[in-house]
Amino acid sequence: MELRASLSKIEEMKERIEEFESVLQNCEIQIEYLETNESRQRKSPMANAEEGENDEPLYPPSFTPLHGQTQVEVHPCKSSVTIRP
Length: 85
Known about the structure:
Strand content: under 5%
Largest sheet: none
Helix content: 40-55%
Order of helices and strands: H
Number of helices: 1
Number of strands: 0
């Protein structure tokens, strides 16, 4: 019985290690992305100042925030209008 309990704990620990490795990988990807952007900004801080909005994504495509909330698409409220002749 003790052996099964120990085996169960080992399996739980393996799962946690996999989760931590995934989190670590996401953090490494985010750090790499931020360092790349930082070095680009140091080279030419005013390069995109006249272009307005930056079309680059906030995070690299492979980055997945762990506890972030998904963004819900919001539609503007429209009032109904009746036009009578």
